[in-house]
Amino acid sequence: MPKISVIVPVYNVENYLKECIDSIIAQSFKDIEIILINDGSTDNSFNILKEYEKKDSRIIIINQDNKGQGAARNIGIDYSTSKYLSFIDSDDFIEDTMLEELYSIAEKNNSDIVKCRYKRIKEDGTQTSQYSKIITSTFDTTYFKSILSLKYTSVVWDSIYKKELFSKNNLKFHDMYYEDIAFIFKLYFFAESVTFSNNVLYNWRIREGSITRSIDNKQIDDIFSIFDITFDFLNEYNCYKQYKKEFIIRCFKRINLLVKRTKEFSNKSSLPKYYKYIHNKIKTSPYLQKENLEFIKNNDLTSYLKYLENISIINSYQKQSPSKLYKKDILGIKQNLLIDTLLKDKLKDTVIKRNIELKDRFKDKTCFILGQGSSFHEFDKSLLKDQFTIIFGNHFESINSNDFEPTFFIESDKLFLNENISTIKNIHTKYLFLPKSYKKRIKEKNSSYYFYSEDFTYFNYFDKNYRKTKFSKDISKKLYISSSTLHLCLQLAYYLGFRKIYLLGIDLNYASENLTIDRDTTKYGLNLIVKDFKKAKKVFEKDKREIINLSKNSILKMFKYEKFST
User: Fold this and answer.
1) 70 with 171: CB under 8 angstroms?
2) Are 130 and 226 part of one and the same domain?
3) Per the confidence metrics, is the pTM higher than 0.85?
4) Composition of the chain by helix, strand, coil, percent to 5
5) In this predicted model, what pLDDT tens digit does every residue of 160-176 receive, in sequence order?
6) End of a domain among 207, 233, 250?
7) What are the E-state strand segments in 225-304?
């Protein structure tokens, strides 16, 4: 009996299928069966499968009418005879050692699931610098909450699973779009042991016209069905109250992503139709009503503000005034909680004296702003040991303190901060900059903490400065929140007095959403980030300061490229 059953649903992928199957056949771990399910392909895919069946006795072909990827996977599970299951998408491919590494870890730890990292590749197979998050946590209820609240991407193909995890719990994929999102959290709910590998072993291809790059009414319906499936499951196992926060965050984050995707993948004529359809679905969804909107405001302000913006944009297509639509669709929230009032309240703050002490503290010195792009990973980290460095987000997870310790940490994303506040308290940096709202949560009397006021007018749909990039030269008064945390880093560097700024790992040379941060980094989002950098460039150059790019392949061509040497 083979050790691993590799299950591959196939539908109209003649241009990519050979690369996928070749990568499975070439695995260093040979004791596998390869179950290829032709799901009613109308191109040459089935003929390609028959060719490979003659070449390798481990291949099993199942031919069926088109039933969808979820149904195809279920049939593959039924046919499988192995202890472990692996699911590979037929337009992707895997590294030669993937199955061997995951199987070895599973056997050593008696794991129900072993998960690796992945990278995205372009449609033509060329590499990007876009990798999934480094996982530093152990498996517990906190990790399950992260899966439920969509902190991590919901996919099944980056892991191997014990087959009994499916059979014992009667788990089947749903016959729908986005079946992974509707299913993956169940696997982690029932799993008793999960092990993580931070090796990048899976290659995820981004194709025009794929489900993740298109939109229609059925996809919109299935997003709302996922809410029902998740809610019913949590209630069935009497744990809805325990995971209510994560469930509601899940719903609002998916709606925000749905609106973004609808705008990105619709044409001008179909966009109003889809917006109206989404609007009607939201009105009837029990999970997006007043009480949960209040809940998300208190637990995930970033998603809340984005949702208000999205609602207003959707309804502006109905040819009503934005203010009227706002009052109508925010579902009866008090009139004095109009978004601009909310934002103004957040801006009311006193000057923070401790920040004033840092103004121009590092005048005429050099610093590095560090991202997680390929230029950082390829850089000799020992050169940073005696340099001033600024990091943000979860970058601290990928830094080895033996190489260097970052000087500054800054972040504004509330969801990220709420989930990682205990870890952030233990970051080895000299200076930590956090929003003022976290001042009460940091009980330690630590001189390294600095708290700043935020200006959110960039995101205020009703403000004249909506989507206008502004730059603060004095962060003791306020920091302007913009399209990414990078804008905070640049304002901080200016305030501290640095004369020369090196951008390292700020490559931004991918075409779809960045998997390491929860931001709009589609083509539209990237343009917003580039706009921030252009604003910073003008401010720095006017004061005879310089920003230099250390990534040769970065899209930030407005800065000169330079190879760093001490």
Assistant:
1) no
2) no
3) no
4) 45, 15, 40
5) 999 999 999 999 999 89
6) 207
7) none
